[in-house]
Design a protein that fits this description.
This protein has 134 residues and is α+β, with helices and mostly antiparallel strands. The protein has 4 helices and 6 strands. The two termini are 24 Å apart.
Length: 134
Amino acid sequence: MSAELRRWLSGLDRRRFDAAEGAVTCWFGAKGESRRHEVRLVDEGHQVRMEATIATRSHVERMGADGFSVYRWTWRRNRGNAIVGFRVDRRERLIAEAVAPKVGLTDAEFETYLLAVASEADRMELVLTGRDVQ
């Protein structure tokens, strides 16, 4: 993990975030009492990829059995979204993600990306699966 990423993680408000090596849990209210979502961080040199699981493979398969196309849904959602994108990964999980360039990235922007990914993933998880998985 780069020094920049460590610095951004150490600057997060511990009342709203739990930071660990490679992941951040974002709380949407009182810590321990409210919804939360984990965002994984991937340091890719000049950028940071932030990704969160929306639905597991089994959920994606169940949605497909009901005639719901996750692939079409992600394509439609990505057309109108500026920061957070959606994709199905190699493990066939539905993922929310954003890529932030490191150059010039401020603490506030880092936090904005984290919250955007976490909130979109958490909202879509509830809409698509009907529950709070994490």
